[in-house]
Design brief:
Two copies of one chain form a homodimer. Chain A has ten helices and 20 strands. With 354 residues, chain A is an alpha+beta fold. Chain A folds into two domains: 124 residues, Creatine Amidinohydrolase, Chain A, domain 1 (3-Layer(aba) Sandwich), CATH 3.40.350.10; 223 residues, Creatinase/methionine aminopeptidase superfamily (Creatine Amidinohydrolase, Alpha-Beta Complex), CATH 3.90.230.10.
Chain lengths: 354, 354
């Protein structure tokens, strides 16, 4: 990971503002800038220095992980006094992450000095991934993909959604996943028409579609994939809806390349579904960036004006949700390359029936 | 769940302040006050009304879950304009949760009106649990406890910590857990001396102690338990350290009753370990409240002055961590009753060896 480059870019941003430092309180941003993966730490970046403030629990871990920053750990007591002392040494305005600092902490840290509320400074740097980051996402995506057929081999009609999620999560953890990147969705039959159907105690029955949407964390980076399968032989309508969603997904992927507006990628999927008479059943956006977090820029949404850039890594995940009938969603992770797109998810996309 | 009582108490608090309403942005607090368990929603409580603002995804769920509040869902667009319009109708100061409102959102919502930053209003109500809440925690604790022997039956020397965590989490999910209440800790041998040892790829070897600390979510309430087991026959030192930690844990539980200061409960555990010559190896606090969140008031820590009250539910979890050698921690969930304490965790505490 290229920490020196990241800090250099952040300092360029700092110089264009009227602030003398940035206080980084969002943990994924802290990790991005210095490698620290602990659950408590703030980073203070000045034009000359980068200081990670954390506590005794992370002495060993920070020594191993942190790059390009000095680690400050109080011998006793909390981190706050040391941080305030360091801030007091800086003359001028200190910028802070407005979206990631509570009013309570602002009152404590900026009681006696001016702060500058800024948004997305580090997130914007994170948007274009370094090759090493794409490789980390690819590893997470592959781990998650490999577990899929192993879990599906255990799926039987009558199994609860939560029971299947348990099996899937077991395969993921047993393959070395550090954790899940979000709550696993397993939504069968009518439940599949709920876009965010957390795995419930509902039994998965014969004749139902099952939407399975899940992801892992590996070395801090996330995966995200959705497959929809059918229990028993699918009927004509099921096959037709599935085919339309798959065509929409492939059309959106085909539209991905640097310079294309995110809204055009979204429209590519949406147009296919509209032509199939299913437009009204696709009510969410087509995708989002992934990286250290599960939802990052850019948003692949209707009318989104931002242009794709090489190095971005996004999901492409159109879906159709018909109330009372069920849902179909197909999702891959796609890297934007200089020449177009590379689909990182290796799992096949034909309609699987068990 | 007694939502009318909760709202009544919150409104009493409101009357004692100079605010005309409280904006509740912390999701566990939203859930506590109206039952809504979705991942996006804010609650506005005035002396007469309680309004939940959420979005289209939660139309059905909010209709099922919400009690004692009107649900406001925009037909199109975001929640923000509706919330601002409702806030604009209130004359006077609106209180907000300073610890759970970002500066960015404060700038948006309180750009043109005065806000009052308050802390812990709802958290304080949540501290003493209703009988139905204690019952919910008990169900979560029992589910987690039942899974423990089933997972341990699969533990073999050479298995990775993460592999064992995968098995344990599988048993939890397959028993119906909605999720984990925190990242499972499995820390073996030298790794066990790290208090927060996330399950790693380290193999669990013969002759090692294994600290296993985990919890589930069930109906929104959490469990939290730790057991330490030994791979192979434990030697004299291992048995002695284990016995000291167990005695410390039992002494702390024996000290629990209404009116006792939290610091005294902590001291009860600490004194046993000090007498055993292990005081220096017990560097964290003895416990914490649990409920809708994994860390709630009260803190069972050295010098904590707060007095225990019937209805509180806390963990008791002393430990000993000897660098290079390993760790032992034993943790139960304990309900403070009118007459003393009830241990909710049924799992035995003698030193298990496999």
């Amino acid at each position: 990971m290229n920490y020196p480059r990241r800090l250099r870019q952040l300092r360029q941003r700092l110089r264009r503002s009227n602030a003398v430092a940035l206080l980084v309180t969002h943990l994924p941003n802290v990790r991005y800038l210095c490698g620290f993966s602990g659950s408590a730490g703030v980073l203070l970046v000045t034009p000359e220095r980068s200081l990670l403030f954390t506590d005794n629990r992370y002495r060993e871990q920070s020594a191993q992980e942190v790059r390009e920053a000095e680690v400050v750990i109080p011998e006793t007591g909390g981190v706050r006094p040391l941080l305030l002392a360091e801030m007091a040494r800086l003359k001028g305005v200190i910028a802070f992450e407005a979206e990631h600092l509570s009013v309570a902490l602002q009152e404590e840290l900026f009681a006696r000095r001016r702060g500058l509320a800024v948004r997305g400074w580090v997130e914007r740097l994170r948007e274009r991934k370094e090759p090493e980051e794409v490789a980390a996402i690819r590893r997470a995506v592959r781990l998650a993909s490999r577990a899929f057929p192993r879990a599906v081999a255990h799926l039987r009609p009558g199994m609860s959604e939560r029971g299947f999620a348990a099996r899937l999560e077991y395969e993921l953890r047993a393959s070395g996943a550090e954790g899940l990147s979000f709550e696993t969705i397993v939504a069968s039959g009518w439940h599949g028409a709920h876009v965010h159907g957390r795995a419930s105690q509902k039994a998965i029955e014969k004749g139902e579609l099952v939407v399975i949407d899940y992801g892992v964390l590996l070395s801090g980076y996330v995966s995200d994939m959705t497959r929809t399968l059918h229990v028993g032989t699918p009927d004509r309508r099921t096959r037709a809806v599935y085919r339309a969603v798959l065509e929409a997904q492939l059309a959106a992927i085909a539209a991905v390349r640097p310079g294309v507006r995110c809204g055009e990628v979204d429209a590519a999927a949406r147009n296919v579904l509209a032509k199939a008479g299913l437009g009204q059943y696709f009510q969410h956006s087509t995708g989002h960036g992934v990286g250290l977090e599960i939802h990052e820029a850019p948003r692949i949404a209707a009318q989104a004006k931002e242009k794709l850039q090489a190095g971005q890594v996004i999901t492409i995940e159109p879906g159709v949700y018909i109330p009372g009938w069920g849902g179909v969603r197909i999702e891959d992770v796609v890297a934007v390359t200089e020449r177009g797109a590379e689909v990182l998810t290796p799992t096949p996309k034909r309609l699987l029936h068990i």
